[in-house]
Design a protein that fits this description.
Blueprint (H helix, E strand, L loop, with lengths): L1 E4 L2 H17 L4 E7 L6 H11 L14 E6 L2 E7 L7 H6 L10 E6 L5 H6 L2 E8 L3 E8 L2 H12 L4 E2 L1
Parallel strand pairs: 2-5, 2-6, 4-5
Antiparallel strand pairs: 1-7, 1-8, 3-4, 6-7
Helix pairs in contact: 1-2
Length: 163
């Protein structure tokens, strides 16, 4: 499934809406990989999801820290950026493995392909690609039962998806 977004405001609106819908429909645990070239909108998407969940604080890119964690009501969103990731041991030190499947925890992972074992565990991968000068095409790729269920929720929403 694909989502065509003509500009950054459309991207941020879509991400915020998607996050709030998943929360409102009871998605309690999820791991989403965000894949695409530098500047394709991955961090913008993560920030907008946090906005859609009601988070009003500062959202830095976790490029150097690798991980930022946000508590929003009963939900915890863990945002990882593996662009500077060098060693699989680093994930162990961060305690990421313990967060998979934890109730009330969503993992957003930028550059999941840099940790193949982590990529395999993603319920869902969003592939970001340029669309014209300012737009993006986001391809939704479910990889688990939870990912397929999340895709059903997207299809049932007001998003215009293409097969």
């Amino acid at each position: 499934m694909k989502l065509n977004l003509q500009n950054e405001p459309a991207l941020t609106a879509a991400a915020a809406k998607l996050a709030s819908q998943w929360r409102d429909r009871g998605v309690a645990t999820l791991c989403v990989g965000l894949r695409g070239p530098l500047g394709s909108g991955k961090t913008t998407w993560a920030r907008a999801m946090l906005t859609g969940l009601g988070y009003a604080g500062r959202v830095p890119s976790p490029t150097y820290t690798l991980l930022e964690e946000y508590r929003i009501g009963a939900l915890t969103l863990v945002h990882l950026d593996l662009y500077r990731f060098n060693d699989p041991e680093e994930l162990e030190f961060l305690g990421v493995r313990d967060r998979f499947g934890e109730q009330g925890v969503w993992l957003l992972v930028e550059w999941p392909e840099r940790a193949p074992n982590l990529l395999e565990k993603c319920d869902f991968v969003l592939d970001f690609a340029p669309l014209g000068a300012e737009g993006r095409v986001i391809t939704f790729l479910p990889q688990s039962v939870a990912g397929r269920a999340a895709l059903v929720l997207v299809r049932e929403s007001e998003f215009k998806l293409e097969s």
